[in-house]
């Protein structure tokens, strides 16, 4: 290994060195830092990569493709103390921005935590210091913010823990069968709805298992309608003001043509007008709509039974009037 001050336009400092491999260079970094060093997960732009130690020391590593050697060096730290111009104190490093290629600065604790704990670069993850000292950069002194839960939530979940263990698979099977989705997708629906039903800001329903099945199925239908990853239950706005969730009836109709026909009928179009749009007769439209509504009626009557609700007597068509 040989000292160098400058290499192909890079001002590297007097402690720079040559190494035959990346592994040799990281071993030398670890020796100098006195602790473990890993290749940093900070995204790079260009031929230089970064390596960071558990104590927050940052190193640069350049590969010379022509000579098949590596050049390692130490990157100077920027200690920033709190003042009017810099309201956020801490330890920073000057690096190349991975999108623009221009000089920028990053916090040392992010480099350490993202590399050794997360294994990826994610600026949305906040890193805190256990002792509150923002200049004490050490892996043992870093953590993410602790999530706190309302004690009533914990109490509700504990109360229904036996129900969860006993009925979880049955509810999953029902959602998987009814919605025709994968088992893992049904499990996500059922688990999220359980968390929503037992959350602290609402009173658990009287027919808990029935409500659990009902809303899990409804969540599954939303998954099908959106044809994307299932939204979190918190994304539904209905319950935020202590109101019941809306049921997307049209989303339960798989056939796009039939869904549009029913929507047109609900908006006052005649069967002749609907038939004209789709090149069919009014009688065919009438038969199709009768069958679609009958299927919806059957599905919702099953839900009434699951919820322990007595359905209306006589003409059940009033359910969809």
* CATH architecture assignment of the largest domain: Alpha-Beta Complex
Low-pLDDT stretches: 227-247, 314-321
In total, the number of strands is 11
What spatial form do the alpha-carbon principal axes imply? elongated
Strand content: 15-25%
Explain this structure:
It is a single chain. The protein starts with a strand and ends in a 14-residue tail after the last helix. The protein has nine helices and eleven strands. The chain is 40% helix and 17% strand. The chain folds into three domains: 4-143, Homing Intron 3 (I-Ppo) Encoded Endonuclease, Chain A (Alpha-Beta Complex); 150-246, no CATH class; 249-321, Orthogonal Bundle (Arc Repressor Mutant, subunit A). Helix 4 (161-179) packs across helix 5 (183-197) and helix 4 (161-179) runs parallel beside helix 6. It has 321 residues and is of the alpha+beta class.
Tags for this model:
single chain, alpha+beta, Homing Intron 3 (I-Ppo) Encoded Endonuclease, Chain A, Arc Repressor Mutant, subunit A, 6-stranded antiparallel sheet, 3-stranded antiparallel sheet, elongated
């Amino acid at each position: 290994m040989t000292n160098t001050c400058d290499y192909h336009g890079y001002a590297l400092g007097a402690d720079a060195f040559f190494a035959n491999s990346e592994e040799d260079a990281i071993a030398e970094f670890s020796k100098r830092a006195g602790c473990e060093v890993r290749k940093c997960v900070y995204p790079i732009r260009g031929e230089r990569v970064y390596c960071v130690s558990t104590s927050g020391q940052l190193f640069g590593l350049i590969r010379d493709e022509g000579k098949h050697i590596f050049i390692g060096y130490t990157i100077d730290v920027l200690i920033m103390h709190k003042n009017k111009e810099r309201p956020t104190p801490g330890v920073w490093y000057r690096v190349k921005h991975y999108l623009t290629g221009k000089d920028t600065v990053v916090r040392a604790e992010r480099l350490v935590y993202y590399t050794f704990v997360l294994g990826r670069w994610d600026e949305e993850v906040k890193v805190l210091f256990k002792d509150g000292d923002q200049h004490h950069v050490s892996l043992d002194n870093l953590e993410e913010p602790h999530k706190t839960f309302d004690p009533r939530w914990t109490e509700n979940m504990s109360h229904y823990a036996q129900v969860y263990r006993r009925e979880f698979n049955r509810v999953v099977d029902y959602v998987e069968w009814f919605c025709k989705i994968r088992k893992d997708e049904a499990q996500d629906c059922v688990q999220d709805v359980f968390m929503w039903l037992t959350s602290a800001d609402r009173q658990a329903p009287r027919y808990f298992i029935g409500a659990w099945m009902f809303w899990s199925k409804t969540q599954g239908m939303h998954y099908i309608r959106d044809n994307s990853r299932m939204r979190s239950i918190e994304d539904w706005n209905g319950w935020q003001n202590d109101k019941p969730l809306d049921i997307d009836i049209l989303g339960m109709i798989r056939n796009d043509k039939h869904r549009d026909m029913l929507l047109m009928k609900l908006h006052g179009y005649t069967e002749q007008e609907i038939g004209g749009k789709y090149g069919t007769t009014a009688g065919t439209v009438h038969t199709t709509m009768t069958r679609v509504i009958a299927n919806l009626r059957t599905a919702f009557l099953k839900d009434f039974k699951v919820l322990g609700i007595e359905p209306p007597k006589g003409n059940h068509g009033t359910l969809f009037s």
